[in-house]
Specification:
0% strand, 6 helices
Length: 125
């Protein structure tokens, strides 16, 4: 268990630093006020987790430890959005389209609600 945590943590360390560096594009690149760096992180992380999932389904490469490092650690540290989209891919792959729609809708709605409530809470303090 400790070994797995260290593997995940190592990947997360690298992914978090990569996210920080890429998201600096938010300061320099503008496109209709969209945070381009964050968008790039989310799309790139989703693409990467899609590639890793596809490879993992077809072979034993990468092995379980590399999957933890790359998928949970690196992609998870880079962007949790990649985990979200990867989970939706697996649900779609299993024919659970209604669950994909529900999960996506709830994630977006509840995410916005939570960020709003968190923000409003700070105004009450």
């Amino acid at each position: 268990m400790l070994k797995n945590l260290l593997i995940i943590g190592s990947g997360g360390f690298i992914g978090s630093i990569a996210r920080y560096l890429v998201s600096h594009l938010n300061l320099t690149v503008t496109f209709h006020s969209i945070p381009v760096g964050t968008l790039l992180v989310n799309v790139t992380g989703s693409f990467l987790i899609g590639i890793l999932t596809g490879i993992a389904e077809k072979s034993m490469i990468p092995g379980p430890e590399w999957r933890l490092f790359l998928m949970v650690g690196l992609c998870g540290g880079f962007t949790t959005f990649s985990t979200f989209t990867g989970e939706n891919l697996m649900l779609m792959h299993n024919g659970q389209l209604l669950t994909v729609l529900l999960y996506t809708g709830l994630s977006i709605f509840l995410g916005f609600l939570a960020v709003y409530l968190g923000y409003v809470t700070t105004n009450l303090l």
